[in-house]
Amino acid sequence: MNTTIPLLFAVFLFYTCQPPHPVEQETDRMPNIVIIYMDDLGYGDVGINGSNIATPNMDKLARSGLVLTNGYASSATCTPSRYALLTGSYPWRNREARILPGTAPLLIDTAQMTLPKMLKQQGYFTGIVGKWHLGLGDGNVDWNDKINPGPNQVGFDYSFIMAATQDRVPTVYIENGLVVGHDPEDPIEISYQQNFEGEPTGKDNPEMLKMKWHHGHNNSIVNGIPRIGFMKGGKSAQWKDEDMMDTFLERAKSYVTQHADHPFFLYYAMQQPHVPRTPHARFAGTSGLGPRGDVIVEADWAVGDFMQTLEELGLLENTLIIFSSDNGPVLNDGYYDDAVEKNGDHLPAGPFRGGKYSLYEAGTHVPFYISWKDKIKPGTSSALICQVDLLSSLAQLVGSDIRARDSEELMEVFLGNSEEGRDNLVIEATSRTAFRKGNWVMIPPYPGPELNQQVNIELGNSEDYQLYNLETDISQQSNQAGSNPELLEEMIKSFALIRGDNSSAVKALELK
Ligand code: NG6
Ligand code: CA
To answer: Is 82 close to ligand 1, i.e. is its CB under 6 Å away?
Structure first.
């Protein structure tokens, strides 16, 4: 009897009767990597840090792995932090790395090494879902055509993004360079200079608004919300803010489902709790702290639902998950949304001074968790680490020899095997820089207001040097610069070695 047919049949059965996503148990398969990146989530907004907002899913994720209590974003605003995350380069090395308008050209050189490019070289499928805010095209984008270059040209195989921020035009989703739901009969035009004739604005048409602007945010109106920048057309493509969480979540889930059989990287860049805060009706009113609290509850639910998907796919044992935020918290960031009025005694920044835009700790000292089931032991690490380190550290993990200039090899710290983090770190806030070394932080003198009155946040500006010991003074209340001249000088010198001659610290030292 011919045995080939039953054998082929058995082979056929073997392959077709497998569960849809058999996770290969080869021990040497490289882990999937997911970065869940929040927008303006503060250290104290998460339950494990004493938040008044319930975040059971973020807490669970944190407790399942390593909680990095000295984890930093590279900047106190979005674009520079994201730039550093993806390039492994300090944002202050690139003058253009600052909060970008929706029409800005792509900030990352397409020839530059990036985190997704490095992973792609190691055989990963790479994707981004969510907020981009790193510029698109050459500065003269036709939104009705293929938008190029963008995420797909700096290492992402798949992209489903909002171009800039939720409060900036264009208010459309872009998938692999094409506006989703685009209607050629209703072409999209975008300008950050002037309005299009006959188009209503937040400034002139307050009767059309469901959310009022406090500062900025008085240009085009989309979905009853006034935005930064002017937009005309694209009605069928415009997003509904209240559905954004579900939209991104669905894409993130389908991405991991589709790529479950192959090592993947997902940069899941959520929009909460950045303004405008627009919780879906399912979450409106759930936090008791107004829309800012509600969108954190919403985001937390999304984290839980996403994690459940990974679990159902059997991927948890083979997926390294990093959770962090692009910068610190802000209450009033330009809309009247009750964030201040309903905050009560909640401390979005936890024990830290300042907030978004600030050189004080709250600007960059953010939630930072890393989880990998059965591989990373649950625990806490106080090692000093920064998002800029992810490129070189993940390269170590996946066996790539690519390293980036400012990105340190700290995989052993991330895995919980070592407490030896960075020796020092340069942090950035709206083009100013400060220096942490060990437990000390030195902020050079900067002119300008001490307080940004619109957002009510202390920026860190002062005529004098500031020197704080975070070990004994986590809230930066006691300036030690006067009583510690030797240490101050040492700090300034080490800072200058990294920061170069342009640093204000060096200039100030020379003037002394
Ligand atoms: C500021 C906006 C603020 C926010 C921020 C970017 C005004 C007055 N303020 O310019 O609302 O959009 O840019 O935030 O327009 S970030 O998290 O993307 O850096
Ligand atoms: Ca942000």
So the answer is: no
Give me the pLDDT at residue 18, please: 42
Residue 397 has a pLDDT of 98
User: What are the pLDDT digits (tens) for 112-149?
Assistant: 999 999 999 999 999 999 999 999 999 899 999 999 99
Same domain, 388 and 485: no
Q: Which residue, 362, 387, 419, sits at the end of a domain?
A: 419
Nearest to 247 by CA among 314, 180, 347: 180
Domain end among 402, 419, 436: 419
**pLDDT tens digits, 164-186:** 999 999 999 999 999 999 999 99
Q: What mean pLDDT do residues 188-193 have?
A: 98
Instruction: Provide the residue range defining the domain that includes 465.
Output: 425-511
212 and 337 share a domain?
no
Is the Cβ–Cβ distance between 287 and 54 less than 8 Å?
Answer: yes
* Residues 110 and 203 reside in one and the same domain: no
**Ligand 1 lined by 408 (C-beta under 6 Å):** no
Q: What is the dihedral of CA 122, 124, 129, 133, to 10 degrees?
A: 10
Cα–Cα distances in angstroms (integers) from residue 389 to residues 39, 147, 359, in the given order:
19, 30, 20
Domain count, the chain: 3
Return the best residue to mutate from 37, 39, 78, 364 for the ligand 1 pocket (most ligand atoms within 8 A of CB). Answer: 78
Atom of ligand 1 nearest to the CA of 326: 17
By the CB criterion, residues less than 5 angstroms from ion ligand 2 are 39-40, 78, 326-327
